[in-house]
Amino acid sequence: MSAPALELRDLAKTFVQGGTPIEVFKGLRLNVAPGETLAILGPSGSGKSTLLSLIAGLDQPTAGSVWVDGQNMTALAEEPLAAFRARMLGIVFQQFHLMSHLTALENITLPLDVARDPESLAKGRAALEKVGLAARATHFPAQLSGGERQRVAIARAFVVQPRLLLADEPTGNLDAKTGAYVLQLLFDLVAQRQTTLILVTHNEELAERCARRVHLAAGRLN
Domain span at residue 216? Predict the structure, then answer.
């Protein structure tokens, strides 16, 4: 039996603000099967983005652990964690997070260049073509529309062929028509590659595109 694509074991996170501890959540448990699409819903301030940062290994939990494909990410030191994340995870943010001084193609190949992949250029061009932006390879982010920037971000996330894709309000900065196009592209790529998807959103209609939905509220997943 294969390991879950994602497993949260009694996950907890507490911040200290002004000397006062603020508990975001504790005791979170979750299993996500390989290839499953899951939406995490919740109101603003419920901790959705914090949870996604913990799953991505960009932040450390106060207690508990995050397991991806059978690996306890929480137990990894900084360098092995970065290498594991680069190999296993793709992340799409609401704010795009593209490097302004790099072209669309250079942004996409960045994770491959870090991994010293000798085929980074060819893979980057193929990823750019997959999202319909082959003609925009040499354009910088400032020369692209919001929808094009998010398509570049999606191509960057998929170029490493991740086992787990994390998406944080991926259409939050886009108009309805562009958002619908980008979302369809995202789900098409997920289906084609049988990638496990964790989608964080406050939008019920968007969440319905996923096979399963859970709610994060009052520090609990239901």
Answer: 35-60+78-221
